[in-house]
Amino acid sequence: MPHDILTLAVLAVAVVLLVQAVASLVQTLYIWDSPDRIRAAGKPDTYEKPQHGFTVLLPARHEAEVIGETLRRLGEARYPRRLVELMVICTADDTSTIQAAERARFEHDLSNVTVLVFDGEPGKSRAMNLGLAAAKHELVTIFDSEDDVSPEIFSIVDTIYQRRDVDVLQCGVQLMDHDSHWFSAHNVLEYFFWFKSRMHYFAERGAVPLGGNTVFFRARDLRDVGGWDEHGLTEDADLGIRLSIEGKRFGVMYDAAHVTREEVPHSTRAFVKQRTRWNQGFLQIIRKGEWLHLPGLRKKILVGSVLTAPTFMAIVIACAPLFILIGITTKLPVMVSLLSFVPLLLAAVMLCTSVVGLYEFGKDQGLRIGPHRYLLLVLSFIPYQGLLMVSAVRATYRELTGRRGWEKTVHTGNHRIATPAPKPALVPVMASEAA
Amino acid sequence: MSVLQAAPEAAAPAAPARPPFWRTRGAEVLLVATLLIVSGLLHAWNMLGYPYFENDEATYLSRGWAFITEGQLDVATYRYDHAPLGWMAIGSWLGLTGGGAMFGGMLEAGRVLMLLVHLVSTVLVYLVAKRLAGGRMTAGVLAVLVFAMSPVGIYFQRRVLLDNLMVLGVLLALLLLLRRPLTLGATVASGLAFGVAVLVKLNAIFFGVGFAVLLWVGAVGAQRKHAVLQWFASAGGTVLLFFVYALLNEELFPAPVDADGEPAHVSLVDTFELQLGRGDFAWPWQPESSFMEAVGSWVGKDSLTLTLGAAATVGLLLVLAARRFRDPSAWAVLALVGGYVAFLARGGIVIDLYVAPLIPFLAIAVGLFAARITDRVPDDWRRPAVGTVLAAALVAGYVLTSDRLYLTKDETSNQDAALAWIEQEVPTDALIAADNYVYPELVQEESYTGAMYFFHAEYDPELRDTYADDWREIDYLVLTHEVVEQISQGTVPRMAELLEHSTLAASFMDGSSAFVDLDAGISTNGDWVQVWQTKSRNQIVLQDAWQRFRDDWIVSYGQVLEDDAVSTTSLDQVLAMEQALAEGDEAAFRGVWQWTTDHMRHREDDALTSWQWLTDEDGEGELGSSDTVCSADQRFIGLLLEADSTWGAPDLRSEAARMADDWWERCTFTLDGLRLVDSSADGSVDDQLINPSYFDPTLYRTFATQLPGHDWDRLIDDGYAFLARVLDERGTIPNWIVLTQEGDLAAVGDLVDGEGDVMGEDTLRLVPTLLREEIAGEPRARKLLDGLVPQVVGYAADAPGLPSSVALALVAQVRDIGADAHEIYLARIASQVDPETGTWDGTLADFAWTYSWHRFQERVPPALAVPIS
Prior knowledge:
The complex is a heterodimer of chains A (435) and B (869).
Chain A: H1 2-28, H2 35-41, E1 54-59, H3 64-75, E2 84-91, H4 95-107, E3 113-118, H5 124-134, E4 139-142, H6 153-163, E5 168-171, E6 173-175, H7 184-205, E7 215-218, H8 219-225, H9 235-245, E8 250-253, E9 260-262, H10 268-288, H11 297-329, H12 334-365, H13 371-379, H14 381-400, H15 408-411
Parallel strand pairs in A: 1-2, 1-4, 2-3, 5-8, 6-9
Antiparallel strand pairs in A: 4-7, 5-7
Chain B: H1 25-44, H2 55-70, H3 85-96, H4 106-132, H5 137-149, H6 151-158, H7 162-177, H8 184-200, H9 208-218, H10 222-248, H11 268-276, H12 290-301, H13 303-322, H14 328-344, H15 358-374, H16 382-401, H17 405-408, H18 413-425, E1 432-434, H19 439-445, E2 451-453, H20 454-459, H21 461-466, E3 476-479, H22 481-489, H23 493-500, E4 502-508, E5 516-517, E6 522-523, E7 529-534, H24 537-553, E8 554-555, E9 559-560, E10 567-569, H25 570-582, H26 586-600, E11 612-615, E12 621-625, H27 630-647, H28 650-667, E13 668-671, E14 674-677, E15 688-690, H29 697-706, H30 712-730, E16 737-739, E17 745-746, H31 761-775, H32 779-798, H33 802-814, H34 821-829, E18 833-834, E19 839-840, H35 844-859
Parallel strand pairs in B: 1-2, 1-3
Antiparallel strand pairs in B: 3-7, 4-7, 5-6, 8-9, 10-11, 11-12, 13-14, 15-16, 16-17, 18-19
Helix pairs in contact in B: 1-4, 1-5, 2-3, 4-5, 4-7, 4-15, 5-15, 5-16, 7-8, 8-10, 9-10, 9-14, 12-13, 13-14, 13-15, 14-15, 24-35, 25-26, 25-27, 27-28, 27-29, 29-30, 30-32, 31-32, 31-33, 32-33, 33-34, 33-35
């Protein structure tokens, strides 16, 4: 009965896709569900008197050219300097960076800058773990050196920690250059939906794969879970999951004016490599199996689905021609065909949601977005899915063949430590802006 | 520390005083419960007796049952006439309640479901009206009162209609969209509910404008665009599935047409085109438009609700103007009502039940308007007091204006009785074309295999195959208001033919308030049923033949005149009257007789008819001969008597009696001890010219009982004796013969045209007469036939033609002559039938012969009749 088996297979895939698409839409639109949620997701209207101290970890490697500027901007934060420790971390042999940091400290009169040096293998996670050990304040956060950080961020975070029962706070990170590449609008919207809406959904459910920067932790919590994983490719998501297992409470804040601004990868090639690395990182986390210790089935499913989404979607997209072939050559029961039509419909809804999202992103950021940008967004939808698929397939292939290191090209032509710019927030992949 | 808040709440008001009871939630629940009970009673009381079970109700029930038991969307081929969700729901209900088992029938089960639907809708109307009015109970209560008490509402809400389910979906969608603050979840749920409502009945789409308004005002700020998108996506996506379903079945686009011009399969586009094209376009303000007619009908049923609804709508417009168009609720209600009214007034067909979905929104308009008015009353005890007075006035209005037929009138007993009759009298394998109300019971509860919804019977190719696409094969037509309406609209030509060619088997019209005139295609109410039995094929041929005869050959008010002919004979006239009588056509019968009397009965000495009238090219006419033909007159007499028996016409009977006296006097004679029938009252002086075929013993037997003044029995006995002598002496019965004054038989020679002295066409006319006598057990007829039959067989071989064929076929039918009567009929008589008209072509003379064969079949016992197909 190959026909029956075929029918069952199509039915099963359709049902999974349906569930996936509905879940994805629910997460994507989570914040817009009610005006109350929209209001609660933003920054506080008033700030409390500063109370918490912050240690800002700035892992750097050959960053002599930008570290000074980074420190200067962080120094302009409207927050008592005594409560902010700016910690540049680099290897002892990186003398130019050390000198640049020292120079900035004097030139801009930054009494709160410290430089932490270490010997041995360079590595971002390692640097951060060392920084964590040396951190003197209660709250620890990470920025990347090219990040454009809001000067009010410490006030906002301090207020939230005072008013709400929060252990970990993820603040918004937003790619800004929606018109720089053919794929950038989709990439921008991934960040937009991820930090503005989906993160809230995860935080509400207590299972959050965190982003790579503008995350605030209690130093105590980080030490309890043993800091960052120094071997994974996506140590940020991994950390989020371990904190989730510990039952930490997550908060999310996305305010258009106070997001940490970043840029999309500088080429299609860079995008694919970046995405490959994230996807492979997810696979590593799955392999580690810690996520299986998340309390409750719902959290396991939630995190599991996020981690597997890129691979799953790659398989589905790769199989799409096969399904089209089946549809053309085989007479499936009409109800099965009808059901398998629904995910397609939801994909169209998702695309429309993206169009609305692009409009809102422009409005949020005060950018004028011309009509052709929307047209381009629609036209590039399917090619973008192809890009995601290629990345997912590469990631799977690399993981299966044991190539677990950084791709070499990442290091060349880029002076920053360990990661290519910009450091990703963890953005999962699906047939849309939101997996 | 406190939780994150956008802004601190305004200082909490001082603890309010305990509100009076009528302001508590408990009081509201009590009030709504009371309204529900009252509404439930109004709708439930007599709900199985009124209104009559309508065709569509059974359609949806039977489809629902087919869905739940067989997974089919229709009992026949699904034609995309409606989206199927409505009867899927109905089918689920039937499944849950064991088909008709729990409530004594599917129709009854359907009505119970509608009661539940009404109750849920009532709660929804209350909530929607209240929310639209900003929480004012007055709005909810008044809306519910209108919704529950509207007679036209009760009429249609009791019926198992898709509209009622659709309204439930639309109200639910509204309520969800009225959630404050509006969430995307509620928005999506609302869109899905609306999409489902559309898939229950597509015209829900016309409420869409109202939803657009509510969406715009309900969602705020950044949420709005997402809300609009998600609502339209969920509603539109749901509706789209219907079209995708059609596409997947390859039934979306029209199929190529086959040789007959019929598409190879059904298609959604075809059906939509058909539906959109229904009815003629007329501007809604034209009095003859379907819209104005429907409005007239609705006002007749329920003037109060429509007046109140219209007034409230206008009132809301004024409110809107007074508030500088800043009243989203008023906008929404106006858009809901306006959108649907625009649909009704689009210029196409408006069916009576289209009003059903409008009622709840008119009710909500009344509620909202009342709330807006009472908003001006101070918000203390006075406001509820005014609300109470308004509610009481509304109730009083309904009590005073309604005839409350819905509580008392019985419209379904006739339908039940007809069903019982069918189950008693009609075999389960009969082919029955019926108003669909019988379908669930006959087919789905009982075991009738051949019962068909008349519309399907007309249009469904598979069903048409079951009767070989020949309506004559259908055995019964269950005739109702709806069937009459469709026939008179010309949508079901086969059914029209069927009714035209059937006889009334049972009629159930006790206590019916309907005026029914089938000839005019009029029925005014559905509380009656008739069962019509299709005539036999032979009867159908005879009926069509008479139709053709009347249309082609009867001119003026009763003259039989063939095309291009000049002569009208008394035999032609009598043939017309014979058919008119057999077909029950009294008007034609009397017309022909009147014309005959006016033109052919001016003889000085008797009341008999002259045999010929001549008409010239200009239509001017004159008597061609004043002589009589005795066989014509005897047949006139017989027909006039029978007409009196059939229609009660004493004038005709006395005329017959007068003619019979003259006929006996002038058309019979006594010679050689025998009383015999003359050929004519005129002409013979000494020797008697006799046409043996004029002898009609069967007719004389009826005269013997009805016209006792003469010795008819002797005429029979002597006639037989004379024919026996002729056969004996001449070895045959010639066309004509002379009986001389001396009592000898003599040749006619030149006395008549043609061959008078041999066997011929006239002789053959005697054959059916003698055969009928033989069948009736007359030994003298048998003896005569013993001698005559071999000659008929021989004659048919020598002189093939219609007369000899008919005679041969009749003989073969009654006697064993080694030939098959049916085959002779098919080869030599039926071949004359024109398949287009169902009757035969040819001359009047041919007609008379063919007619003779078919009429003979009606006059012999059914077992002897030759079946035709």
